[in-house]
Design a protein that fits this description.
binds zinc ion; mainly alpha; globular
């Protein structure tokens, strides 16, 4: 199974400062390269996996792709946890940058000691007593659903979205 794109090297090197400087076109390209890292940003149909898709930009400016294999339309966020939201791509990139910064901080501290930040997260999360120790191998399993569900502005995220 392919690595979750939020955990890719490209995502890890994305900084908030960078994201804020991006034009709309650059944000689009950055998101494509994150999402479809294996093809360097070329669209991959989320329905059938075909690489044979062409772009057709809507009058609204939204970039859509049409798959030549299954004839379905998709966007750069189709099939990701961002699919059901209607925010600018820059908002998603900012959320990804924040996610990766938190993840890096957690990974660095995991296994050393249950720190205050983690205790706070854990007590908000599901352990009212705050007694929660996270091991280095558990960071992603813990953080991915947690952070994704709480990304600023994204609201509720459904179970199936979390699996993509
Ligand atoms: Zn397809």
């Amino acid at each position: 199974m392919a690595q979750h794109f939020l955990l890719s090297r490209a995502a890890k090197t994305l900084s908030l400062a960078q994201v804020f400087r991006l034009s709309i076109e650059e944000a689009e390209l950055t998101f494509r390269k994150l999402r479809w890292a294996d093809t360097n940003g070329a669209p991959v149909c989320p329905s059938c996996g075909s690489l044979d898709a062409y772009g057709c930009r809507r009058p609204s400016g939204v970039l859509r792709f049409r798959c030549k294999g299954c004839k379905k339309d998709f966007t750069v966020t189709s099939g990701t946890l961002f699919a059901s939201h209607k925010l600018p791509l820059k908002s998603y990139l900012a959320a990804i940058a924040v996610f990766c910064a938190v993840r890096a901080a957690l990974t660095a501290s995991a296994g050393v000691a249950p720190n205050k930040f983690l205790a706070k997260l854990a007590s908000d999360w599901r352990k009212p007593d705050g007694l929660f120790v996270i091991q280095p191998d558990d960071v992603d399993g813990f953080l991915l659903p947690l952070t994704v569900a709480r990304l600023p502005g994204l609201g509720k995220v459904t179970e199936e979205n979390l699996r993509s």
